[in-house]
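Human:
I keep going back and forth on a fold encoding question. Comparing notes only helps if you start from a blank page. Show me how you would write down a chain together with its backbone fold. Write it directly below this note and I will take it from there.

Assistant:
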Amino acid sequence: MSKNMGNRTTIEDLIITARNGNKQAEEEFFSKLTVRFLSVITRKIRNYSSLTKRINVAEESDAICDFAISEVRRLFPINHPKFSIVWAVNVLHNVVDNFVTNLLVDIAKDGDPEAEDQLFSLIRKKLLERINRKRWREGQDE
């Protein structure tokens, strides 16, 4: 069995145990999720040079991660029937994208053309994702 498969089983076991009311398993699951979220957040922020020039990436990543985890816990508690890692990751991406967008807007308002270009690039990417998702759904309905 690969290391990745063993890790997946551990995560799934933690979720099952946490859903059965074990608070320690729930905390361990969210601790592991925090580690994964933190690397995703840091990587996404580092994609925007306008941000990395103006913020402490490590501190902001920690704050965003804490907020994302709290949002996952609030929106989809682990014992909620709709809870899934996919939903948790979606929440994470929404939180990070909102942070990046809002900060790029503020920096662009200060007259930074690089931030403005990055902001429009991000908006364009999100719009294209939305269009493609809508097309895919319409294709499914036919």
User: Anything to note?
Assistant: The chain is about 85% helix and 0% strand. The chain has one domain: 3-141. Residues 1-5 have pLDDT under 50 and may be disordered. The two ends are 41 Å apart (CA to CA).
